[in-house]
Amino acid sequence: MAQPDPFLPPALFSRWLKLRLQILDAIARGAAVSLAAWIGSLLCIYYYFHLVTPISLFANLAVVPIAYFVLALSLLSLIAAPVSAVLSTIFNNANWLLSRAVLALVHLFAAIPNGHFYLPEPGAAYTPVSITILDEGTGAAAHIRANGYDWLIDSGGARSYERTLKAYLHSHGVNRLEGLILTHGDSQHLGGAGGVIGDFAPREIYDNPLGVRSTLQREIAERFNPRFLVRDGALALGRDVEAQVLYPPPHARISSADDAPIVVKMTIDNSTTVLFESDAGEESEHALVNSGDDLRSDILIKGQHHTGGSGTPEFLEAVQPRIIIATSRESPVAENITDEWANEVGRRGIKLFRQDKTGAVEITFQSNGEYQARSYLSGEIFRSSNR
Description:
The radius of gyration is 28 Å and the shape is elongated. It is α/β, with parallel strands linked by helices. The chain has eleven helices and 18 strands. It has two domains: 10-117, no CATH class; 123-386, Ribonuclease Z/Hydroxyacylglutathione hydrolase-like (Metallo-beta-lactamase, Chain A), CATH 3.60.15.10. The longest helix has 35 residues, at 15-49. Helix 2 packs antiparallel against helix 3 (85-110). The chain has a nine-stranded mixed sheet with strand order 8-7-6-5-4-3-16-17-18, covered by helices on one side. A seven-stranded mixed sheet has the order 9-10-11-12-13-14-15.
């Protein structure tokens, strides 16, 4: 590309041809160095950050020359400092301007669509259908992978978003979400929604239509115009993975967000069922039991109502789960699983994963109807085939 016509003597090169050849030669050299640096760092960046950045091949052509002048000006400022403070200040200000230009260019290239993407961590086993319930303390965030489609039920709190939810999704190669479901206006359930929407651009956003005094919920409604989910709604999460909305009814009257969260029953391959109860309390559970819906589910995923009243014997009898994955924290007291309730669950022959002891829990599903639940913290494993 940078070579002239071999039959044209150099003495006949025009000024513009010489300039063009010099520019092309500089670009070719820069591109070669950029490609070599990208290939050399590719495996390390992928291993530590699960990230591939093809856009850096082009970004380096603009950023590296400016970075060279940043270093040169730093050296000049160091040399000039003993002689003239004014001259050193001029070099420092010029350096600041170029550094700002570098940052602006980096942000510009980072914003280019598909310029970078995340891949699953090395050695991760691929499972077509899985659910990971992250340990968000008193909040919740559940990642559903449904035959190539990624969904999120709740987004956890804003404070833990960067280090927990965002880091987890990147490590699992999630670049864009198919949908985000926000069950209710609790800040520990939707506080990270702004970050999720900005970083993972879900194609669909679903929210609870029942209004409460939640500033975050109002902001999400105004900025992103989500669709509302109410009883009898249905969603296709992916091939052979469906979700039915069991709660809330469209005109329920509530005094707090926990009184009527979105309750979803997910069905996988028409065999295995998972009930997401969120923070529903006794009144919601009573309404669900008397609704006439079939609540029976293999797996129950639940939070804690702010009053501490949930997981009633009546509700457990209707659901008949084999596994319960429940949030639990010592403070506030209402968020803590009591020994009495844990004993009642054990008496019924139900395997309890309480997340203050197990941390996040990953459930993987097989096409033959079998599934496995694994604790991240304790390594405890439950297999349906052993039951």
